[in-house]
Protein backbone atom coordinates (compact mmCIF):
# COMPACT_ATOMS: atom_id res chain seq x y z
CA UNK A 1 0.00 0.00 0.00
CA UNK A 2 1.02 3.63 -0.31
CA UNK A 3 3.30 5.17 2.32
CA UNK A 4 1.43 8.48 2.20
CA UNK A 5 -2.30 9.19 2.29
CA UNK A 6 -4.05 10.68 -0.71
CA UNK A 7 -7.27 12.68 -0.74
CA UNK A 8 -9.45 10.22 -2.65
CA UNK A 9 -12.33 9.80 -0.23
CA UNK A 10 -15.45 8.67 -2.10
CA UNK A 11 -13.89 9.17 -5.52
CA UNK A 12 -15.17 6.54 -7.95
CA UNK A 13 -12.58 4.59 -9.91
CA UNK A 14 -13.03 2.28 -12.89
CA UNK A 15 -9.93 0.14 -13.37
CA UNK A 16 -9.35 -2.50 -16.03
CA UNK A 17 -6.89 -5.36 -15.63
CA UNK A 18 -7.06 -5.47 -11.85
CA UNK A 19 -6.97 -9.21 -11.30
CA UNK A 20 -3.26 -9.40 -10.51
CA UNK A 21 0.09 -7.62 -10.47
CA UNK A 22 0.21 -3.86 -10.94
CA UNK A 23 -3.55 -3.57 -11.43
CA UNK A 24 -4.29 -5.38 -8.18
CA UNK A 25 -1.89 -3.15 -6.25
CA UNK A 26 -3.39 0.01 -7.76
CA UNK A 27 -6.91 -1.18 -6.95
CA UNK A 28 -6.10 -1.93 -3.33
CA UNK A 29 -4.19 1.33 -2.93
CA UNK A 30 -7.18 3.33 -4.15
CA UNK A 31 -9.42 1.43 -1.74
CA UNK A 32 -7.04 2.00 1.18
CA UNK A 33 -7.18 5.70 0.43
CA UNK A 34 -10.97 5.87 0.61
CA UNK A 35 -11.97 5.55 -3.04
CA UNK A 36 -14.74 3.34 -4.38
CA UNK A 37 -13.46 1.02 -7.08
CA UNK A 38 -15.02 -1.03 -9.84
CA UNK A 39 -12.31 -3.44 -10.95
CA UNK A 40 -12.76 -5.14 -14.30
CA UNK A 41 -11.14 -8.11 -15.97
CA UNK A 42 -11.80 -11.44 -17.64
CA UNK A 43 -11.58 -13.71 -14.59
CA UNK A 44 -14.05 -13.26 -11.75
CA UNK A 45 -12.07 -15.28 -9.22
CA UNK A 46 -8.97 -13.12 -9.59
CA UNK A 47 -11.00 -9.93 -9.34
CA UNK A 48 -12.74 -11.18 -6.23
CA UNK A 49 -9.38 -11.98 -4.67
CA UNK A 50 -8.28 -8.40 -5.36
CA UNK A 51 -11.21 -6.89 -3.43
CA UNK A 52 -11.93 -9.64 -0.91
CA UNK A 53 -11.04 -7.51 2.11
CA UNK A 54 -13.36 -4.65 1.19
CA UNK A 55 -17.07 -4.04 1.63
CA UNK A 56 -19.62 -4.33 -1.18
CA UNK A 57 -20.42 -0.63 -0.95
CA UNK A 58 -16.77 0.24 -1.66
CA UNK A 59 -15.69 -2.29 -4.28
CA UNK A 60 -17.23 -4.34 -7.06
CA UNK A 61 -15.80 -6.86 -9.53
CA UNK A 62 -17.02 -6.65 -13.12
CA UNK A 63 -16.24 -9.38 -15.63
CA UNK A 64 -15.64 -8.50 -19.26
CA UNK A 65 -13.20 -8.61 -22.16
CA UNK A 66 -12.17 -5.00 -22.73
CA UNK A 67 -10.84 -5.82 -26.19
CA UNK A 68 -14.51 -5.94 -27.26
CA UNK A 69 -16.16 -2.57 -27.97
CA UNK A 70 -19.37 -3.31 -26.09
CA UNK A 71 -17.58 -4.23 -22.86
CA UNK A 72 -16.47 -0.73 -21.92
CA UNK A 73 -19.97 0.64 -22.54
CA UNK A 74 -21.38 -2.01 -20.23
CA UNK A 75 -18.74 -1.25 -17.60
CA UNK A 76 -19.65 2.43 -17.57
CA UNK A 77 -23.32 1.57 -17.21
CA UNK A 78 -22.67 -0.80 -14.30
CA UNK A 79 -20.36 1.60 -12.46
CA UNK A 80 -22.72 4.54 -12.77
CA UNK A 81 -25.63 2.36 -11.67
CA UNK A 82 -23.78 1.28 -8.53
CA UNK A 83 -21.80 4.39 -7.60
CA UNK A 84 -23.55 7.19 -9.54
CA UNK A 85 -20.46 8.65 -11.20
CA UNK A 86 -16.95 8.02 -12.50
CA UNK A 87 -14.10 10.28 -11.40
CA UNK A 88 -11.02 8.27 -12.34
CA UNK A 89 -10.39 5.71 -15.08
CA UNK A 90 -7.27 3.53 -15.05
CA UNK A 91 -6.49 1.46 -18.12
CA UNK A 92 -4.22 -1.40 -17.06
CA UNK A 93 -5.34 -4.37 -19.16
CA UNK A 94 -2.40 -5.55 -21.26
CA UNK A 95 -0.98 -8.43 -23.25
CA UNK A 96 2.69 -9.23 -23.83
CA UNK A 97 4.14 -11.47 -26.52
CA UNK A 98 7.85 -11.40 -27.37
CA UNK A 99 9.65 -12.45 -30.50
CA UNK A 100 10.98 -11.01 -33.73
CA UNK A 101 8.56 -10.27 -36.55
CA UNK A 102 9.54 -13.40 -38.45
CA UNK A 103 8.76 -15.52 -35.38
CA UNK A 104 5.32 -14.07 -34.68
CA UNK A 105 1.96 -14.80 -36.23
CA UNK A 106 -0.94 -12.62 -37.28
CA UNK A 107 -2.80 -13.96 -34.25
CA UNK A 108 -0.01 -12.73 -31.97
CA UNK A 109 -0.31 -9.25 -33.41
CA UNK A 110 -4.10 -9.31 -33.17
CA UNK A 111 -3.97 -10.31 -29.50
CA UNK A 112 -1.50 -7.58 -28.55
CA UNK A 113 -3.22 -4.92 -30.63
CA UNK A 114 -6.71 -5.75 -29.42
CA UNK A 115 -5.76 -5.90 -25.74
CA UNK A 116 -3.31 -3.00 -25.61
CA UNK A 117 -4.57 -0.55 -28.23
CA UNK A 118 -8.17 -1.33 -29.13
CA UNK A 119 -9.16 -1.78 -25.47
CA UNK A 120 -7.75 1.64 -24.57
CA UNK A 121 -9.63 3.26 -27.45
CA UNK A 122 -12.90 1.62 -26.44
CA UNK A 123 -12.41 2.56 -22.78
CA UNK A 124 -11.58 6.17 -23.57
CA UNK A 125 -14.54 6.49 -25.91
CA UNK A 126 -16.96 4.93 -23.43
CA UNK A 127 -15.84 6.98 -20.42
CA UNK A 128 -15.48 10.40 -22.05
CA UNK A 129 -18.97 11.67 -21.17
CA UNK A 130 -18.74 10.41 -17.59
CA UNK A 131 -15.35 12.06 -17.10
CA UNK A 132 -16.61 15.28 -18.65
CA UNK A 133 -19.38 15.40 -16.05
CA UNK A 134 -16.95 15.03 -13.15
CA UNK A 135 -13.97 16.82 -14.74
CA UNK A 136 -12.14 13.62 -14.03
CA UNK A 137 -8.95 11.95 -15.14
CA UNK A 138 -7.86 9.05 -17.35
CA UNK A 139 -4.60 7.26 -16.54
CA UNK A 140 -3.01 4.62 -18.74
CA UNK A 141 -0.47 2.09 -17.56
CA UNK A 142 2.04 2.27 -20.37
CA UNK A 143 5.71 1.23 -20.35
CA UNK A 144 9.18 2.54 -21.03
CA UNK A 145 8.87 0.19 -24.01
CA UNK A 146 6.60 2.89 -25.44
CA UNK A 147 9.48 5.37 -25.37
CA UNK A 148 12.30 3.40 -26.99
CA UNK A 149 12.88 0.06 -28.68
CA UNK A 150 13.73 -3.36 -27.28
CA UNK A 151 15.08 -6.56 -28.77
CA UNK A 152 12.34 -9.08 -29.67
CA UNK A 153 9.53 -6.79 -28.53
CA UNK A 154 8.48 -5.05 -31.74
CA UNK A 155 4.74 -5.60 -31.46
CA UNK A 156 4.59 -4.94 -27.72
CA UNK A 157 6.64 -1.75 -28.05
CA UNK A 158 4.50 -0.61 -30.97
CA UNK A 159 1.38 -1.01 -28.85
CA UNK A 160 2.86 1.02 -25.99
CA UNK A 161 4.05 3.74 -28.36
CA UNK A 162 0.45 3.91 -29.54
CA UNK A 163 -0.80 4.34 -25.98
CA UNK A 164 1.63 7.18 -25.34
CA UNK A 165 0.46 8.86 -28.52
CA UNK A 166 -3.15 8.44 -27.48
CA UNK A 167 -2.43 9.96 -24.07
CA UNK A 168 -0.71 13.05 -25.43
CA UNK A 169 -3.35 13.72 -28.07
CA UNK A 170 -6.35 13.03 -25.83
CA UNK A 171 -4.88 15.42 -23.26
CA UNK A 172 -5.00 18.13 -25.92
CA UNK A 173 -8.50 17.27 -27.11
CA UNK A 174 -10.02 16.85 -23.66
CA UNK A 175 -8.29 19.75 -21.94
CA UNK A 176 -11.19 22.04 -22.84
CA UNK A 177 -13.43 19.78 -20.75
CA UNK A 178 -11.01 19.84 -17.78
CA UNK A 179 -10.29 16.13 -18.20
CA UNK A 180 -6.67 15.25 -17.51
CA UNK A 181 -5.04 12.37 -19.37
CA UNK A 182 -1.69 10.89 -18.34
CA UNK A 183 0.27 7.65 -18.39
CA UNK A 184 2.57 5.89 -15.95
CA UNK A 185 5.41 4.02 -17.65
CA UNK A 186 7.11 1.29 -15.62
CA UNK A 187 10.12 -0.71 -16.73
CA UNK A 188 10.63 -4.37 -15.80
CA UNK A 189 8.36 -5.05 -12.82
CA UNK A 190 8.07 -8.15 -10.65
CA UNK A 191 4.68 -9.68 -11.38
CA UNK A 192 3.30 -13.09 -12.27
CA UNK A 193 3.80 -12.20 -15.95
CA UNK A 194 7.55 -11.68 -15.44
CA UNK A 195 8.16 -14.56 -13.03
CA UNK A 196 10.18 -16.59 -15.57
CA UNK A 197 12.78 -13.85 -15.87
CA UNK A 198 12.65 -12.90 -12.19
CA UNK A 199 13.65 -16.42 -11.15
CA UNK A 200 16.52 -16.58 -13.65
CA UNK A 201 19.50 -15.08 -11.80
CA UNK A 202 21.52 -14.37 -14.96
CA UNK A 203 18.67 -12.64 -16.75
CA UNK A 204 17.66 -10.67 -13.67
CA UNK A 205 21.27 -9.51 -13.23
CA UNK A 206 21.26 -8.19 -16.79
CA UNK A 207 18.06 -6.28 -16.14
CA UNK A 208 19.35 -4.84 -12.86
CA UNK A 209 22.53 -3.68 -14.60
CA UNK A 210 20.38 -1.27 -16.63
CA UNK A 211 18.56 0.15 -13.61
CA UNK A 212 20.09 3.11 -11.79
CA UNK A 213 18.63 1.92 -8.48
CA UNK A 214 19.95 -1.59 -9.08
CA UNK A 215 16.74 -3.55 -8.64
CA UNK A 216 13.58 -4.36 -10.58
CA UNK A 217 10.36 -2.50 -9.92
CA UNK A 218 7.46 -3.87 -7.91
CA UNK A 219 3.73 -3.11 -8.12
CA UNK A 220 4.16 -1.20 -4.85
CA UNK A 221 6.51 1.17 -6.68
CA UNK A 222 3.98 1.89 -9.42
CA UNK A 223 0.70 2.39 -7.54
CA UNK A 224 1.64 5.61 -5.68
CA UNK A 225 2.43 7.38 -8.95
CA UNK A 226 -1.00 6.48 -10.29
CA UNK A 227 -2.70 7.72 -7.14
CA UNK A 228 -0.76 10.98 -7.25
CA UNK A 229 -1.84 11.64 -10.83
CA UNK A 230 -5.45 11.06 -9.79
CA UNK A 231 -5.40 13.75 -7.08
CA UNK A 232 -5.73 17.52 -6.98
CA UNK A 233 -1.99 17.73 -6.34
CA UNK A 234 -1.61 16.83 -10.01
CA UNK A 235 -4.32 19.22 -11.24
CA UNK A 236 -1.94 20.97 -13.69
CA UNK A 237 -0.40 17.77 -15.05
CA UNK A 238 -1.81 16.39 -18.28
CA UNK A 239 -0.35 14.81 -21.40
CA UNK A 240 2.56 13.41 -19.38
CA UNK A 241 4.21 10.01 -19.64
CA UNK A 242 5.56 9.58 -16.12
CA UNK A 243 8.38 7.04 -16.06
CA UNK A 244 8.49 4.99 -12.85
CA UNK A 245 11.44 2.84 -13.80
CA UNK A 246 14.24 3.18 -11.25
CA UNK A 247 16.24 5.22 -13.75
CA UNK A 248 16.11 2.67 -16.57
CA UNK A 249 15.20 5.22 -19.22
CA UNK A 250 17.90 7.64 -18.04
CA UNK A 251 20.49 5.50 -19.79
CA UNK A 252 21.53 5.71 -23.43
CA UNK A 253 21.74 1.92 -23.41
CA UNK A 254 25.54 1.75 -23.23
CA UNK A 255 26.97 -0.63 -20.62
CA UNK A 256 28.51 0.52 -17.34
CA UNK A 257 32.25 -0.08 -17.84
CA UNK A 258 33.30 1.23 -14.43
From TrEMBL:
<dbReference type="InterPro" id="IPR020904">
    <property type="entry name" value="Sc_DH/Rdtase_CS"/>
</dbReference>
<dbReference type="InterPro" id="IPR036291">
    <property type="entry name" value="NAD(P)-bd_dom_sf"/>
</dbReference>
<keyword id="KW-0560">Oxidoreductase</keyword>
<feature type="domain" description="Ketoreductase">
    <location>
        <begin position="11"/>
        <end position="187"/>
    </location>
</feature>
<dbReference type="Pfam" id="PF13561">
    <property type="entry name" value="adh_short_C2"/>
</dbReference>
<dbReference type="InterPro" id="IPR057326">
    <property type="entry name" value="KR_dom"/>
</dbReference>
<dbReference type="GO" id="GO:0008206">
    <property type="term" value="P:bile acid metabolic process"/>
</dbReference>
<comment type="similarity">
    <text>Belongs to the short-chain dehydrogenases/reductases (SDR) family.</text>
</comment>
<dbReference type="GO" id="GO:0016491">
    <property type="term" value="F:oxidoreductase activity"/>
</dbReference>
<dbReference type="InterPro" id="IPR002347">
    <property type="entry name" value="SDR_fam"/>
</dbReference>
<protein>
    <submittedName>
        <fullName>Short-chain dehydrogenase reductase SDR</fullName>
    </submittedName>
</protein>
Amino acid sequence: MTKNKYDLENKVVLLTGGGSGIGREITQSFLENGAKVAVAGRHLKSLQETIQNYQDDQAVALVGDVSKPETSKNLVYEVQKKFGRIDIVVSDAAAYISGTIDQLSNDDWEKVRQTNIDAFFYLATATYSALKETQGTLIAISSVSGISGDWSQAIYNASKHAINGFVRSLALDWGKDNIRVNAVAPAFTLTRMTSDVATNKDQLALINSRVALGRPGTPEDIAPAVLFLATEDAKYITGTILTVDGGTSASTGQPNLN
